[in-house]
Protein 1
Amino acid sequence: MTLTDTRLHVHRIGGRIGAQISGVDLAAPLDGDTISAINTALLRHKALFFREQQLDDEAQVRFAASLGQLTTAHPTVPALAGSDHILAVDGGEGARANNWHTDVTFVLSPPKATTLRSLVVPEYGGDTLIANTATAYTDLPEPLRRLADGLQAVHSNDYDYIPHPQFGTEEAEQRREVFVSTRYQTVHPVVRVHPETGEPNLFIGGFAQQLIGLSRTESRDLLRLLQSYVTRPENVVRWRWAPGDLVLFDNRTTQHYAVDDYGDLPRRLHRVTVAGDVPVGLDGRPSYVVEGDAATHYTPTPQDA
């Protein structure tokens, strides 16, 4: 990969996903060539990792905005005080995202990209796993791939937390009530075509609840089978956080998982997301809303983005 007119260096850290970026200060204004180089690296490697960045909230928002128009923090969860765009990701009780998911797929236009910046990291544990859902799709046996190509799934923010013991507390229930204060259900293609690369990928994850035309039991079994290809070790990169790190991943073709193995140690990140488009399947069918609205308070409509 050749990058011109920039000192940015791309060091591949995984065979199928992930590259560490050096030679760039994200706290400084970035020129067009550098932004283009970062976007090119993102499309190729799906997840980019920047060490030892000296960013504050304003600088993180500015960097994310260089990649496209921003969403607000979240469709239902309040933003960090003082910024409409920052979601505090706090590893407190009932707030740990230890399930595989793609950010905010329960709305019509999920984010294009996610930036995560570490503020407080535990002395052990708390890594983030990121999976390449495009290589997961290519791993599918041909008969299973043909089946997946025509499927659509209902994604919802109202899903079952009960199997996880951490979600049985009063605090966790209060968090859940906020999360589902507006209920969203959106139908997305199971196989999404990436709008920039044209790559097909498995667009499922934790918010995918049921397949159109199939029973809940059939949906659960088939989604688990497809998901098992996403989380194969060769499709996954693991990032050990250090203070000051910034991680950028393409939310259109990845899933991620925050590993809950740090006990009661503090872990705090700030998230800013870049607005995306309406997913489209291999057959050209776009996503559509079943319940809720287009969440325009959260993300701009495609014609405005």
Protein 2
Amino acid sequence: MARTVNCVHLNKEADGLDFQLYPGEVGKRIFDNISKEAFSLWQKKQTMLINENKLNMMQANDRKFLEEKMVAFLFEGIEPTIEGYVPPTK
């Protein structure tokens, strides 16, 4: 049976992630409070951020930058700034 969470990003009950996709405390917070749908939205933004900023996931600073953007997006509703990307209007 699918696990549901009260997704803080989408502000609704939705299917939760099947397992913790991100390590540590942040990962646990995402697992407990973020839906599959919201995490999928983040993954699209993450890909754009990695490409645009030429991030190297082997670099601690790049991972920290991405984690800050992820937490801001998922928990505070802050859209990451992506050059040339205009988010669709609701």
